């Protein structure tokens, strides 16, 4: 399967939901006011969020007016082009550099961090990188076991400690080990829950500080939030709140295959300025693909 086909298949539900609602609207005969009211309604109910929906509707209406496009296919093509431009505003970093790369995955429980760490480890290992996994979710005993399964599946080593250990210590050990054994990518899986929110923030900031203190010249460090697309606008709220605690470089949106809405991608980009690095389109090891803005927009309508 090509990348575009894979995105297309993973987007089947979003296409049947958000995509077909949009396509139906563009084919319908409505007054201008009815058209834009309904466009707004579709976007808001597809997790785009009120602020970004308003800005999309206002800018697109202005653009269509300026170009004197009134309806039907021409209007749909203009909207596709408009969305393409919007999702291309920010570009996700590709991982790698002359030195060691560290990728820290953050996000609430169940968002898909451990699964994503496993999928990324496997694809990086397949492309010849020397990968190390770090089990910094020490909050639940099962968390490191789950990552250990992925480490076996991906054929990459794992650094872990017993449940309840200091997650900062795990990261410290992992970075030392990676440096000594010349790994070029360390993927850090973190906890989505601690005794309370303040504790979680403090733990994540501590891990972040440890990573930064261990970086050498030429090393790269990426902090990415993992978001569950089916959480809808809550996923956006999570991204904003984690971004305040630890500055994020990108987002990974999982479970797009399970969402008929999927619109949360738009406010991540348009409001938070966060590029989308990968999207999860299934539970399998290969079901994590680069986010290609143009392919994503096209797959909505095809
Ligand atoms: N359908 C689907 N399920 C996913 C995807 N990513 C993760 N999951 C599932 O979501 C659940 C929670 O994932 P997990 O990695 O344990 O989340 P964590 O708590 O953030 O580490 C698991 O059952 C995963 O198989 C995805 O892209 N699509
Ligand atoms: Mg986990």
Structure in words:
With 302 residues, the chain is an alpha/beta fold. The chain has a domain at 101-248: Rossmann fold, CATH 3.40.50.300. The protein is built from 12 helices and 8 strands. It has helices spanning 3-10, 12-27, 32-44, 50-66, 72-87, 113-126, 141-154, 167-180, 197-214, 233-245, 265-270, 293-301; strands spanning 101-106, 131-136, 158-159, 185-190, 220-228, 250-254, 276-280, 288-290. An 8-stranded mixed sheet has the order 3-2-4-1-5-6-7-8, with helices on both faces. Strand 6, helix 11 and strand 7 (276-280) form a beta-alpha-beta unit. Helix 3 (32-44) packs antiparallel against helix 4 (50-66) and helix 8 (167-180) runs parallel beside helix 9 (197-214). The longest helix is centred in the C-terminal third of the chain and has 18 residues, at 197-214. Residues 113-114, 137, 143, 189 line the site of magnesium ion (MG).
Offer a concise description of the structure:
The protein is α/β, with parallel strands linked by helices.
Helix content range: 40-55%
CATH architecture classification of one domain: 3-Layer(aba) Sandwich
Largest sheet: 8 strands, mixed
Low-confidence stretches: none
3D shape: elongated
Small ligands present: guanosine-5'-diphosphate, magnesium ion
List the strand order in the largest sheet. 3-2-4-1-5-6-7-8
Order of secondary-structure elements: HHHHHEHEHEHEHEHEHEEH
Q: What is the C-alpha radius of gyration, as a whole number of Å?
A: 21 Å
Structural class, from secondary structure content?
A: alpha/beta
Please state roughly what percent of the residues sit in beta strands, choosing from under 5%, 5-15%, 15-25%, 25-35%, 35-45% or over 45%: 5-15%
Count every beta strand, where a strand is a DSSP E run of 2 or more residues.
Answer: 8
Head-to-tail CA distance between termini: 17 Å
Structure annotation, total helices? 12
